[in-house]
Amino acid sequence: MRARRRRTFGQRRRSEQRRRRRRRFHRNRERGFPRSWCRIPWPRSASASPRWPPQHFRCPIHEGRFWSELRRRLQSPLQAPGTAPARLKRPRRESVCDLTCSSVPRTVQVQEQPVTHKQTSDRLRRSIIVLSAVILPYILVYFHRVAPAVVVDPIMKDFAIDASTVGLLASLYFLVYTFLQVPAGILSDWLGPRMTISAGTAFAALGSLLFGFAPTIEWAFVGRFAVGVGVSFIFVPILRLHTTWFEPRHFATLSGLTLLVGNTGALLASYPLATLSAFAGWRSAFFITGAVGLLAALIAALLIKDSPSAAGLETPAGAPTVQKATFRSATLGMLGVMRRPVNWVPFLIFAGLYGTIMGFQGAWGSAFLQDVYGLPPVDASTLLFAMGLGMLIGCPAVGWLADRTGRLTIVFTVGVALFLTLLVLLEWLPGSTVPVSRPALWLLLFSLGLSASVFILTWPMARAQNDPQAAGSATGFSNMGGFLGGAIVPALFGKLLESHKTGALTTQGRPVFEASGYEYGFLIFFAATAMSLLLLLFSILRERR
């Protein structure tokens, strides 16, 4: 019996291509599309790739109608068994089409109309209005973050609680804020920035009113929890507005200006809040804050537009055209962001760097300067203010420098390396023979804050390596890493200090720690910052490859 001739690789590949085309044809026919829509043009050469979309479209209007109908059909629920599929009508020629619709030409060239100066000025004016509408909500984010620390004495007196309960009441904000960054990214992509910001600001305002009205400490915890939930849905949608309303080369600068506005809220929650509490009481201060929050939510709902296309304006040059996603697609987008290993790089960078910043500036910096450098509490607070001032100036400056040079990763790496060097110098100076004056120490802390402000480049880094449709999910996921590090690193530092108490107490009742305890604690700062630096160097090598 004659043996069957073995087919070549090209013959097997063409047979597989024909089977795929046949399956695709019948699948589209079962969905109800006309037969002419199911034919997929195939190249004559077997080595060429198929062209898609099909070439039988006469003009962009017909092509747009086809894809919109296809999208609607695929998102519609499954038809009941035994029922005939609904037939889709072939799109007719539109009278508004200014193109020549005929079957002869295969490609149609469309001449784009140049964007006029009036359109650009209208979009710029509208973008400034949108940014102005988010200033007050973001000021309230930082205001609520530090407000309990200013009115801690009357709160302890009214509710008859100890310092540990007050600390738990203040930290509830950060715990809620940390774990709601992922839902904030999903809602930002699903509902859009306008609804997310206005609803979050209103919810935080109601929490502020409840906190001021609270008759017991339990109700105060409920109000603080509501404040934390509300403010969690403000920052990530603001970053999404930066993506849709402005060109990508301005993203880092806008992130720095946003942090500058937020620190204004922290300043308002210091001396002005203390003065208002002394004059009208801390409950009235939170009542006024809640009323201002409701007004800010109303302004945001009226003035914010999710994108220039929603306001009937042209999209900026280079900015992606982002459409509002469904809840399912937004959730899948967040899961896709979390599954990509490259997105864990800004997550861990922000966790290590911001955890060190919060551990020093927000927790143990004042105690370190008092116990190791021998400074009084007032001078230690002044030096920490110098660090905050450096961050206040550095945030917009670093963003502008990264946008100006176009070397975001290089600027980020240099800033983290400088921050680590200054941190080592700050820990090394007390044990050395080098004399340190107060102005020199003030300049050192100011430079430390200036270099620490490079943490704002985490969000442009996360946005640049993801699809614009998932911009909210990407920035929300990376933002969660920073607050998670801000909760873990100070706790580890304090755990190491507990075994190095001297037994003495300060005038404020705080235990004094040994200098060796701070040396061990600073090793945690060095390790967290070095992790961020190594990940940035890895990112530079990956970009060059």
Automatic annotation (TrEMBL):
It is a multi-pass membrane protein. GO terms for molecular function: transmembrane transporter activity. Residues 130-545 form the Major facilitator superfamily (MFS) profile domain. GO terms for cellular component: lysosomal membrane. Residues 1-26 are annotated as: Disordered. It comes from the Bacteria. The chain crosses the membrane at residues 128-147, 159-180, 192-213, 219-239, 251-273, 285-304, 344-364, 384-402, 409-429, 441-462, 474-493, 520-541. SUPFAM superfamilies: MFS general substrate transporter. It catalyses: L-lysyl-glycine(out) = L-lysyl-glycine(in); L-lysyl-L-lysine(out) = L-lysyl-L-lysine(in); L-lysyl-L-alpha-amino acid(out) = L-lysyl-L-alpha-amino acid(in); L-lysyl-L-alanine(out) = L-lysyl-L-alanine(in). Keywords: Lysosome, Membrane, Transmembrane, Transmembrane helix, Transport. It is found in: Lysosome membrane. Belongs to the major facilitator superfamily. Homodimer. Interacts with lysosomal protein GLMP (via lumenal domain); the interaction starts while both proteins are still in the endoplasmic reticulum and is required for stabilization of MFSD1 in lysosomes but has no direct effect on its targeting to lysosomes or transporter activity. Lysosomal dipeptide uniporter that selectively exports lysine, arginine or histidine-containing dipeptides with a net positive charge from the lysosome lumen into the cytosol. Could play a role in a specific type of protein O-glycosylation indirectly regulating macrophages migration and tissue invasion. Also essential for liver homeostasis. PANTHER family: MAJOR FACILITATOR SUPERFAMILY DOMAIN-CONTAINING PROTEIN 1. This is Lysosomal dipeptide transporter MFSD1. The lineage of its organism: Bacteria, Pseudomonadati, Spirochaetota, Spirochaetia, Leptospirales.
